[in-house]
Design a protein that fits this description.
The chain has a single domain, classed as 3-Layer(aba) Sandwich (Rossmann fold), CATH 3.40.50. The protein is 33% helix and 15% strand. It is built from 9 helices and 8 strands. The strands form 2 sheets. A 6-stranded parallel sheet has the order 2-1-3-4-7-8, sandwiched between helices. It is globular, with a radius of gyration of 16 Å. InterPro entries: AB_hydrolase_1 (IPR000073), AB_hydrolase_fold (IPR029058), Sec-Metab_Biosynth_Hydrolase (IPR052897).
């Protein structure tokens, strides 16, 4: 399969470097992405919005051979981007794997509460995050994460997503749950939580629990790679 890895906020393609080899060893072609504005700390991020990131991935999907089995893997905010791609090209995507993420509903933004500095969103102080986000992210990993972090374009976090093709619900998905157990997602769906209404409409959903914090590609990369490979099987 052709596996497109979409990073979450503040991260580029290199954030998948400990996960990619496991997927390749299973025989898949892997394409970890660096999205527009995340090329470097001094890249021009002005005017880049959520649609620009979705369109950048759609362009890669469109360039793939017509018979390619394309799988999107989206971490965190990258999950919303993946869902936007599915909405744009529901007939081209075979499967979506959400890594501590899920499909974002029409009209919602990924996170419009993140602190903006000079028109962009640098990686905030750790105190901004919940304790559950930071499980297993020790001092060394935090230092590594901060050193590699790149400010996120404000529009990617703040722009509402626009969806329009209900065939997106036909594409099967796997959710790798880390920060919260999958049982919590099931409970939120049953309670009609706004956070999970879009997920509730997807017809085929598999859940995998990988208990750790919000960044398993750093805290449990081997287990994450194995979980992705299992989802593709």
């Amino acid at each position: 399969m052709d596996v497109i890895l979409i990073p979450g906020f503040w991260l580029d393609a290199s954030s998948w470097e400990r996960v990619t080899p496991l997927i390749e060893e299973a025989g898949h072609r892997v394409n970890p992405l660096t999205l527009p504005g995340l090329e470097a700390a001094d890249a021009d991020r002005s005017g880049i919005g959520l649609r620009d990131h979705i369109d950048a991935v759609v362009e890669i999907v469109d360039a793939a051979p017509a018979d390619a089995q394309i799988v999107l893997v989206g971490h965190s905010g990258g999950g919303a981007i993946a869902h936007g791609v599915v909405d744009a090209r529901p007939d081209r995507i075979a499967h979506v794997v959400y890594v501590d993420a899920g499909p974002l509903g029409d009209g919602l933004s990924i996170n419009d509460e993140l602190p903006v500095v000079d028109g962009e969103i640098p990686l905030p102080d750790w105190s901004v995050f919940d304790d559950a986000d930071l499980v297993d992210l020790d001092d060394a990993l935090r230092a590594e994460f901060r050193a590699r972090s790149i400010p996120e374009p404000k529009g990617v976090a703040y722009d509402p997503i626009s969806l329009g093709d209900e065939r997106r619900y036909d594409v099967p998905i796997t959710i790798i749950a880390s920060e919260f157990p999958s049982s919590a997602l099931v409970e939120w769906i049953a309670a009609d939580s706004p956070f999970t209404r879009e997920l509730a409409r997807v017809k085929q959903v598999a859940y995998v629990d990988l208990p750790t914090g919000h960044w398993p590609q750093f805290t449990k990369p081997v287990q994450l790679g194995q979980a992705i490979v299992a989802a593709l099987a």
